[in-house]
Specification:
Distance between the termini: 10 Å
CATH topology: Spore Coat Polysaccharide Biosynthesis Protein SpsA, Chain A
Oligomer: single chain
Radius of gyration: 16 Å
Strand order of the largest sheet: 4-3-2-5-1-6-7
Number of strands: 7
Number of domains: 1
CATH architecture: Alpha-Beta Complex
CATH class: Alpha Beta
C-alpha cells in the first residue's frame, strides 16, 4: 500500500483523499475492500472517495463497486501501471492512497498514511516486512526470496530508502499524469522501475510499517 502527495492541477469538487484500487476481475474480494475503505472515511471524518480503476473486468466488479457507492473509472489500456495512471488522472482527492483490491491491504485503518501526508511527505510507502506478514498473505517464495532480493538490489543500485519495493505501486500526483515520466513507467510497467522513477523525483519519502 502506498500514498502520494497533493495534486497541483485544478480539480473540481476537490476532496481530501482518494482511496484508489486498480481492479481486474476482483469480484470475490472487492466488496470487503470497498466496505473497509468507506468505513475508514466515515470513522475518521475524512472527506474522500473510493475510486475503482477498472481494467476491463468481466466478472461484474464494476456493478459491485457502484452498488457500494464507489466511483468507477474504466481504463481501456491494459496493464497494472495503466490502471494506476487512469485512476490517478481521474482522482478528485488532494491525497491518493493506493492498494490492491484483493483484500491483502488493511483499508480500514489508513490514519498513519494520512497523517504523514498532512505532515508534508511526498510519498509514504508501506513496509510489510517490519509490520509482520499474516499467514497466507504472501507466497513463501515471494516472502523469503523474491521480494527481499529485489528490494535489496533496488536499495543497492539506487541508494533508495525504500524497505519494501513491492508494497503497492505509488504514482506521484504532483507530476502531471501526461508527462514523460509516467508514460515511461506505464510502458515498462515493472514495480522496481516504477518505484525508483518516482522516488528519484520526490523531496520527502516516508516508510510506514504495515501488517
Amino acid at each position: 500500500m502506498s500514498s502520494v502527495t497533493p495534486l497541483t492541477k485544478a480539480i473540481s469538487e476537490e476532496l481530501e483523499l482518494t482511496i484508489l484500487m486498480p481492479c481486474l476481475d476482483e469480484a470475490e474480494t472487492l466488496e470487503i475492500c470497498i466496505t473497509k475503505a468507506k468505513s475508514y472515511l466515515g470513522q475518521a471524518g475524512v472527506e474522500g472517495e473510493v475510486l475503482i480503476a477498472d481494467n476491463g473486468s468481466t466478472d461484474g466488479s464494476q456493478e459491485i463497486a457502484k452498488r457500494l457507492g464507489a466511483r468507477v473509472v474504466p481504463v481501456s489500456q491494459k496493464g497494472y501501471g495503466a490502471a494506476l495512471l487512469g485512476g490517478i488522472a481521474a482522482a478528485r482527492g488532494r491525497y491518493i492512497i493506493m492498494g490492491d483490491a484483493d483484500d491483502s491491504y488493511e483499508f480500514s485503518d489508513l490514519s498513519a498514511f494520512v497523517e504523514r501526508l498532512r505532515d508534508g511527505a511526498d510519498l509514504v510507502m508501506g513496509n510489510r516486512f517490519k509490520g509482520g506478514i499474516k499467514p497466507g498473505a504472501m507466497p513463501p517464495l515471494h516472502r523469503y526470496l523474491g521480494n527481499p532480493v529485489l528490494t535489496a538490489i533496488g536499495r543497492q543500485f539506487y541508494g533508495s530508502p525504500i524497505g519494501d519495493f513491492h508494497c503497492g505501486g505509488p504514482l506521484p500526483t504532483e507530476i502531471d499524469p501526461r508527462d514523460n515520466l509516467l508514460v515511461e513507467v506505464v510502458t515498462n510497467d515493472t514495480m522496481q522501475e516504477m518505484v525508483q522513477h518516482i522516488a528519484s523525483e520526490l523531496m520527502r519519502f516516508d516508510n510506514h510499517t504495515v501488517a
